[in-house]
Amino acid sequence: MLADELSELARGIGQGTDDNDVVRMLASLVAASHEFIGIADLEGNALFVNEAGRRLVGLRDLEAVHSTRLIDYFAPDDQPKVLQEVLPAVRATGFWQGELRFRNFATGELVPVLYNIFPVRDSSGATNAYGTVTRNLTEAKRTELQLRSIASIVESSDDAIVSKNLNGVIASWNSGAERIFGYSAKEAIGQPITILIPEDRQDEEREILARIRRGERIDHFETIRQRKDGGQIAISLTVSPVKDDEGKIVGASKIARDITERKRAQEQIIALAQETEHRSKNVLANVQAIVTVSQADTADGLKRAIEGRIRALAIVHTLFAETRWSGANLQAIATSELAPYSAQSEGRVQIYGPPLLLTPDVAQAIAMTLHELATNAAKYGALSVPGGRIDLKWSHDANSQVTLQWTEIGGPATEKPTRRGFGGRIIEQMVGQLNGKTRFDWRADGLACEITFQM
């Protein structure tokens, strides 16, 4: 059938059909081709389109081909270019090739093609028709789009994406690699990957290449790499073999993620966990000591004493939370401990001193000390009578030594006790933990206590 069509076509353009074998061979080639192969006369009427071509443009048979014009195959937007550029170029130079779009007659779909058009001449050299061999670029365009998308993803990635050959020489280098390692693509490509590896980790690259040659993939290998400026960063490394069309391993691709901040966060979490454990043990030890040494004449009195001391610890721990465990301000500690008494009457409690941030251990000891002084004053001292008051002040010198002065005014007359009371023992114990000193002065109008310690 196709041979007859070609014979008729050949006669129509003056080529003759004396050699039927040649015609049959040509027919076989045209029938086997997956490309669009067509011929049109000089007026632009379609004379022949092979089966692959008819499928491309949605024509059922040659009868449908004969009823179309060459210009109708093209997308409407491309038709002016065909008339004004393509056909004049063929007449002038004998050939034109470029990208255009065909229109599928059945679906209306526009199909990207690589269009080739050339004159068909008779034995005298005169042009009697135009021939075209056209390639469908749909898959090529789709692949190109995919490759562009992949390239865009690679280039915009925050991770370093690098490829190298089996000798460890860098072959590609994205902007993420520039940002993480500090080398530009121009500086890095062609250099050994070992420029990124610290001297004490060079064996890692030999092991990685050995595993890649065996076809292995390396996932999330955490290590240290070196920047251009000499600084070191923690990275998570994924390495995969790269194969050629025959499946032979020819190199490796690497994705390196900067995990420096993550590592730093992990270290902070570990440090915080250790600090929390230390603080918890410290608090429990203090609570245990409070329970162990607390004394009272009655069970209810013992309960109140223990509750008061534990409340003092709780208050200072609340202050720690506000500073993320860096410590507590002495002003805040004093205000919190003496708040129940200052609320009774204005001027009953006077607190003044410069801002001082005490470390957690120091803050706990001072909080417990002030609690014992306040409790003693409420029971026996200046806070036990209506007219009594407390002056609390502190100062510190250039050597970070703090002097804290507690003075009771207008209270009952006091005398130095014949034996040290429980509150005094706790104060001396707490201040002793700070390697500080305590001095009590039992005066006629109330107790004065001076405490010195290092911040």
Summarize the structure.
The protein has 455 residues and is of the alpha+beta class. The chain has 14 helices and 17 strands.
Describe this protein's structure.
The radius of gyration is 47 Å and the shape is rod-shaped. It has 3 domains: 33-142, Beta-Lactamase; 157-258, Beta-Lactamase, CATH 3.30.450; 264-454, Heat Shock Protein 90. The protein has helices spanning 2-12, 20-32, 51-57, 62-66, 79-93, 138-156, 175-181, 185-188, 202-213, 260-293, 299-322, 330-342, 360-379, 422-433, and strands at residues 36-41, 46-49, 96-103, 110-121, 127-136, 160-165, 170-173, 218-226, 232-243, 249-258, 328-329, 349-352, 357-358, 389-396, 401-409, 437-443, 446-454. The N and C termini lie far apart (106 Å). The chain has 14 helices and 17 strands. Helix 10 (260-293) packs antiparallel against helix 11 (299-322) and helix 11 packs antiparallel against helix 13. The protein is an alpha+beta fold and 455 residues long. A hairpin with a 6-residue loop joins strand 3 (96-103) and strand 4.
Strand proportion, as a percent range, falls in 25-35%
Structural class: alpha+beta
Number of strands: 17
Top-tier CATH class of the largest domain: Alpha Beta
Strand order of the largest sheet: 2-1-5-4-3
Write the layout of secondary structure elements.
Blueprint: H1 2-12, H2 20-32, E1 36-41, E2 46-49, H3 51-57, H4 62-66, H5 79-93, E3 96-103, E4 110-121, E5 127-136, H6 138-156, E6 160-165, E7 170-173, H7 175-181, H8 185-188, H9 202-213, E8 218-226, E9 232-243, E10 249-258, H10 260-293, H11 299-322, E11 328-329, H12 330-342, E12 349-352, E13 357-358, H13 360-379, E14 389-396, E15 401-409, H14 422-433, E16 437-443, E17 446-454
Parallel strand pairs: 12-14
Antiparallel strand pairs: 1-2, 1-5, 3-4, 4-5, 6-7, 6-10, 8-9, 9-10, 11-13, 14-15, 15-17, 16-17
Helix pairs in contact: 1-2, 10-11, 11-12, 11-13, 12-13, 13-14
